[in-house]
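TODO from last week: model Rap-GAP domain-containing protein.
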Amino acid sequence: CLLLGVKGSKVETWNIVFQEPGAQPFTPKNIRSQFQHVFIIVRAINPCTDNTQYCVAVTRSKEVPVFGPPIHEGAVFNKSKAFADFLLAKVINAENAAHRSEKFSTMATRTRQEYLKDLVTNYSTTTCVETSQKFSMLSFSSKKKSAWRPRFLADATQRGAVCWPVALDDSSRAVLVDCLLAISADTLLLVEESSREIVFITPCSSVLGWTTNTNSLRLYYHQGECMTFHMRESGDRDELMEVVVRLRSVTQGSVTQELALKRNPLGQLGFHVQPDGVVTQV
């Protein structure tokens, strides 16, 4: 019994061959096809009984790579849901492996090219669209539109990192380094664009606060260390505000404040420094 893998009008690349006990060995040479690359042979043992079992073998074209799940030599499978899941996984992997073969990739590329040619030939037009009054509601105007930007989600439910292009102020070398600032729900990091190396990383829980100044931001973290970076997109203040909103959402830090501290009669400034470097009781 030969079961072809057919899905709608799409001919699949695999077949399942069911054999009864005592059947002659199967050979794919008896089937001539340009599409069938994999045959999965399932032979029943003690069919139609409570002790039904199956043995499985696979034959594939030379260009199809090896795929799993593996079948151990002499393996026998009991009739169960586990065997059905195993067979389904084998079929799915057979389809994926066949698609990676050079022959099938060439055929798929040629098919896509023919579809594109048909689309251009039969469904394109040279008619110009008139921007008259009847099309005014479609907004065909000469006014330049601003570039579309994706919706900005700053809250902590956005677990992945949100990125901005920035210039990191490297005070040790007195240069600006082009980086990507990425802030996820639990980590803040800077990646140098030219080398793709991480130049700074810290957990969001270590962020103490920040100070904004026109188009730059100074970030305080850990025990009072700080760094400064500048937004690179032509001085776009909106992006700096996005960074601030993201920091408020995923860290416990806040905007810094400047305080004028006066000394008491003993000459003390009147604040305490905790062991972790945080100034308290100002």
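Done. The first helix runs from residue 81 to 99.
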